[in-house]
Specification:
- 28% of the residues lie in helices and 27% in strands.
- With 528 residues, it is α+β, with helices and mostly antiparallel strands.
- It folds into 3 domains: 270 residues, Rossmann fold, CATH 3.40.50; 99 residues, Translation factors (Elongation Factor Tu (Ef-tu), domain 3); 130 residues, Peptide chain release factor 3, domain III (Alpha-Beta Plaits, 2-Layer Sandwich).
- The strands form 7 sheets. It has an 8-stranded antiparallel β-sheet. It has a 7-stranded mixed β-sheet with strand order 2-3-1-4-5-11-6, sandwiched between helices. Strands 18-17-23-14-15-22 form a 6-stranded antiparallel β-sheet, covered by helices on one side.
- Strand 14 and strand 15 form a beta hairpin.
- It is globular and about 80 Å long.
- The two termini are 41 Å apart.
- The relative contact order is 0.11.
- About 2% of the residues have low confidence.
- The structure holds guanosine-5',3'-tetraphosphate.
Amino acid sequence: MNFLDEINRRRTFGIVSHPDAGKTTLTEKLLLFGGAIQEAGAVKNNKIKKGATSDFMEIERQRGISVATSVLAFEYKNNKINILDTPGHKDFAEDTFRTLTAVDSVIVVIDVAKGVEEQTEKLVEVCRMRNIPMIVFINKLDREGKDAFDLLDEIEQKLNLTVTPLSYPIGMGYDFKGIYNVWEKNVNLFTGDPRKDIEDTIEISDLNSSELDDLIGENSADTLREELELVQGVYPEFDEKAYQAGTLQPVFFGSALNNFGVRELLDCFIKIAPSPRPKESDTREVDPKEKDFTGFVFKIHANMDPKHRDRLAFIKIVSGKFERNTPYLHVRNKKKLKFSSPNAFFAERKEIVDISYPGDIVGLHDTGNFKIGDTLTEGEELNYRGIPSFSPEHFRYINNADPMKSKQLEKGIDQLMDEGVAQLFRLELNNRKVIGTVGALQYEVIQYRLEHEYGAKCTYEPLNVHKACWVEAEDEKNEEFQDFKRVKAKFLAKDKRGQLVFFADSSFSLQMTQQKYPSITFHFTSEF
Ligand code: G4P
């Protein structure tokens, strides 16, 4: 197969949802279709169980699993499909945001009974801002849930999307009879048998034929006809270009647990979802078809084996071929690096690969060279954009609890920050270290990992910060900025790159500060 065919057959995507909507179940069923796993239950549940937030073993177990399930690759109808795992737990939302910089499209799973939930809103907003093509899968149709129209309405309102159903449910919950597939123009009847497969779909060339009445009963057939007419009247026709541009979102209905509607989703997905897309860098847009390799680090994972302190850096290949034992430029360090054992990931194993293509993810063993967002190229000096740090929501001072181990503590904090576990700030006033995180759980993870991986001990002290904002001055020399630095000296810090950050202790004080210093811009992400 030639290079272009390899690119065109790749689909790299993420599944996002609020916890419990069915992401893991859907992932597993997709893998079953791809023959990547043999039985249900093979994909370990990658979520922090309720009530287990202070159970360190649980966190460790999760970290182990999340390496294994970071990328799940499988073949389906001559497509190479890479699913990038996104943690559902809200304390790890930043991890998910970063993973979204490496996907070419997304499937959003929504629970038919619960509708649009908080995490879904946040994640979809990020996808929308980046024009990532999204397909919506409404799950658990075997249960009583919201009316299909109400749900579509809710999705449009709350997620700010323009939807068009490509399948439509016939009944729901107890009365769930199946789905009409608008995309393939056939009916798929629900028997509640998870082993159902493709042969069970019945082609319906004409919705008005009596065949439909025979299949699902006269009443259901009439209701379906009426509803589909409404659907046609209300929702725009599916348009592949609009979907790929991120302006139109097709919707599918089904039940992942019963493996119902999943094959239809997957068959449509491979046809319409984009193959690897061009990506913007600081100098130019890079096309996947370019001959020279480029890629970027979107995730770093500390190795599970405490005896070998190496880490795995996950690289998304943007263009060209990535080859084993070939020197590539680490642009930030201006160093050439060679990799003798790049890993590719499959559902149940990882393997050393010689060649990888755009869209693929390779795991590189790293002894501390990489930071999230780093770019690798064949020599060109460019940097991929789009991995911002978000304004953390929790803040604590970090103190050294074992003065004999201060070097280890420094190193541990440094490496954990490179991995993107949390953000480190230094107060301007007294140089004290402050750790900012998206979720409270991270503090326990940091403390535990510092002790077990670096032999260092730390304690925390509370710090009252409402929000941290990156500060940008119109002119650093002007009177207003100097005044701001003087008056707010107690509330200023620097992040790891030396950028100035303002710690607002309440939303009121943030507002007042913004009003008082109009020539200063306060950013809520580090990328501006
Ligand atoms: P998540 O990864 O999005 O957090 O969700 P997950 O797939 O773990 O699913 C959450 C729960 O919803 C699971 O039940 C799962 O079996 C159930 N579920 C998923 N899809 C469907 C569906 O189509 N219909 C129905 N009725 N249930 C579905 P659980 O009891 O929390 O876990 P488990 O003990 O079954 O693993």
